[in-house]
Amino acid sequence: MESTTVQLPTGNAFYGLATDNNVFHAEIINVNGQTDEYEFNNSYSSAFDRVKVIPDEFVIVVRTNFNSSENSYELWNDKKEVILANSLPSPNKIYRDTFDLEGCFKMKLRDNGDDGLAWWANPAQGTGYAQIRDYDGNVLHDFNADFGGGFELSFVTESFNSTKEPEWGSIIKVYPNPALESISVTGVVDRDRLSIYDVAGRSYTCSTMCVSGVPQIDISQLNSGIYFLSIQRKESVVVKRFVVK
């Protein structure tokens, strides 16, 4: 079986994600310029939750129990490099590691005794905890101490996640919204590329005509639901949400 790696766009291409129950949809459109031998396995959809977002400045706090020799944690970046590894050598001690980072990261905490930092069936090990806090001590994420053999948490920092919409995006207007037969789009220029997608990521081809100098897109063939109009201008993209009645 052949496979390939696809680099997904970042930034405002993913505006409007819900906290959970998002759907990522992938579909093969062109099979090396040839007729596909079996077209029914060309698409796949997968539900996913939005990754956790925390401030650039944060503190990982771990309190060990009596069995600290069983525990350790690592912080990885998106290049699969270990930024910090803490073996947590001392029992009943609070460890604080302070960070000021921008990007995508993963925290991995391990327990080779498979009983976490706290477990009702092994009260003799005592109780520990693991948290991510801000610089003022406020808890941003409190991990369940009964995590068995370990856990992983992926997150991004705020400055990395806060891609701003291009300045020209504020003048793009889509109306009426909700719509039934057509939508008008103001603020676009001749070289803008317009595309329509549904919540599953499927693209739709809709005819466009100009009415009094304003592009008008025929959506009469679209089913009722939520759609996204993507406007690409050179290297930047603006996405506007609209509803078909």
Compact description:
The chain has three domains: 11-49, no CATH class; 53-161, Lipoxygenase-1 (Sandwich), CATH 2.60.60; 167-244, Immunoglobulins (Immunoglobulin-like). 2% of the residues lie in helices and 44% in strands. It contains one helix and 19 strands.
Describe this structure in words.
The protein is an all-beta fold and 245 residues long. It folds into three domains: 11-49, no CATH class; 53-161, Lipoxygenase-1; 167-244, Immunoglobulins (Immunoglobulin-like). Helices cover 2% and strands 44% of the residues. It has one helix and 19 strands. The strands form five sheets. It has a five-stranded mixed β-sheet. A four-stranded antiparallel β-sheet has the order 7-4-9-10, with no helix packed on it. A hairpin with a 4-residue loop joins strand 5 (71-77) and strand 6 (82-86).
Using brief descriptors, characterize the structure shown:
single chain; 245 residues; mainly beta; Lipoxygenase-1; Immunoglobulin-like; five-stranded mixed sheet; four-stranded antiparallel sheet; 1 helix; 44% strand
